[in-house]
Amino acid sequence: MMETASGQMQKCNKRMTPGCRIISDTFGMLIGETNKSKTPIAVCGRVLVYTKQDRNLYQLGMPVCAADDGTIDIMTQEEIINHPESIVGTVSEIPTYDIWYAGQYDEDTQRGRLEIPINNRIWIYVK
Questions:
Q1: Three-state SS annotation for the chain
Q2: 51: burial class by Cβ within 10 Å (0-12, 13-18, 19+)?
Q3: CA-CA distance, 94 to 96, in Å (whole number)?
Q4: How confident is the model over 68-81, as a mean pLDDT?
């Protein structure tokens, strides 16, 4: 996601847009909650993201940037050196499982752990 000059959030529409952030459905706190919307934004930590290229081309530790349609993309060495402000995060894991289980079952609240579908995404550490 990127913020417009008027302060609204919108899906990134081009590669290496500086200042882009990742929106996540995997966990955490909602930022910017209003009576009209709730936007979970990853401020730090690890989140699942969709990739522009085949997810198997991504490697652990690889810096990634924003890409079109809300995906992330591999950065070239030249891009990393010349445009470090465009780094969104680094690759953390390429999952081999279909569901990520968050949390544990809590007897007191009768709440179970969350089941988050991977949906062909990869994990990155947010910059």
A1: CEECCCCCEECCCCCCCCCCCCECCCCCCCECCCCCCCECECCCEEEEECECCCHHHCCCCCEEEECHHHCEEECCHHHHHHCHHHEEEEEEECCCCCEEEECCCECCCCECCEEEECCCCEEEEEC
A2: buried
A3: 7
A4: 93
Whether residue 36 is predicted with pLDDT greater than 70 in this model: the reply is: no
The domains of the chain are located at 2-126
Which amino acid is present at 64? Answer: V
Place 43 in a pLDDT band, splitting at 50, 70 and 90.
low
Maximum Cα–Cα distance for the chain, whole Å? 53
In this predicted structure, the answer to whether residue 116 has a pLDDT above a threshold of 50 is yes
What one-letter code names the amino acid at 22?
I
